[in-house]
Amino acid sequence: MPSDAHCHPFDLAHKKADAEAMRLALNLSVAASSWNEDEFIYHEALAEQAVKTGGPPIALCFGVHPQLPSSEPGAVQFSLNALYRFAAGGKLAAIGEIGFDLFDEAYKATETIQERLFKEQIGLARQYNLPVVLHVRKAMDKVFSYLRELTALPAVVFHSYAGTYEEALALRKRGVAAYFSFGSPIMLNHRKAMRACALLPQEVLLFETDAPYQSQRGKPFSDYGDLCQVVKWAARLRSEAGTIAHTEQELHATNDENFSRVYFHTSV
Ligand SMILES: [Zn+2]
């Protein structure tokens, strides 16, 4: 079954009422990201339903998003408290999305808080032996300053990877169990992401929709149906670069396998 390595089912359901029906029709497993309890409770209900019915599974992810100190400062402590509870309750497949967003001045103003939250959350991931899902904008140097901590984690997923091919290889070489997830930016002329997606070994690749937040050109939001488009583009980029594993079929298979390994600790 196909897999979406990073998305927001609760937020998508508010834009598209039949999103869940679409997911089931596609037989799509997803890693569902949330930062507040309402989202998490919705995702948890979907996950329980999947177990009951044998439907495509949901990997529950929760983390204090790096934009939160800027967008909703009052919610940060609530989000962090909820994370501690969910992690202690054994509910999580991963902690995330967490990381650094230094994209503009408003986000940069919260850099110190982002740093404190990141440290605390990767410490928690270590404590519970959980993977992390990273949101990193204009901050790869920050990530490299945490190499020692990151090598201790079972997996580190770079959601919507925007670093270079060389940085990705360097992370693996330094012992980080890093995975690089690609979404619609590879269809939107994001050169670094396109090159990394074209050249990286298949063992570290993942694909995502980030639904509803990464729309293709001309569409108001992304949805689950975009996953196949992303994989199709990745196949084209890899084929043009002459990279091994470049058919859509191969990329879906490798994506599913990496998804299961990262979020469910199993191979398909
Ligand atoms: Zn996201």
What report would you give on this structure?
This protein has a single domain (about 5-265), classed as Metal-dependent hydrolases (TIM Barrel, Alpha-Beta Barrel). About 50% of the residues lie in helices and about 15% in strands. The chain has helices spanning about 10-15, 20-25, 35-55, 70, 75-90, 105-110, 110-125, 140-145, 145-150, 165-175, 190-200, 225-240, 250-265; strands at about 5, 30-35, 60, 95-100, 130-135, 155-160, 180, 205. Helix 11 crosses helix 12 (about 225-240). The protein is globular, with a radius of gyration of 17 Å. The mean pLDDT is about 95. Zinc ion binds near residues 6 and 210.
Q: Give the CATH topology.
A: TIM Barrel
- Enumerate the strands of the largest sheet in spatial order, edge to edge or round the barrel: 1-2-3-4-5-6-7-8
The total count of helices amounts to 13
Distance N to C terminus: 10 Å
Mean pLDDT: 96
Structural class assignment: alpha/beta
Helix content: 40-55%
Attached small molecules: zinc ion
CATH architecture: Alpha-Beta Barrel
Beta percentage is 15-25%
**CATH homologous superfamily classification:** Metal-dependent hydrolases
The CATH top-level class label? Alpha Beta
Along the chain, the helix and strand elements come as: EHHEHEHHEHHEHHEHEHEHH
Number of domains: 1
Shape: globular
Describe the biggest sheet?
A: 8 strands, parallel
The Rg value, from CA coordinates, equals 17 Å
Unreliably modeled segments: none
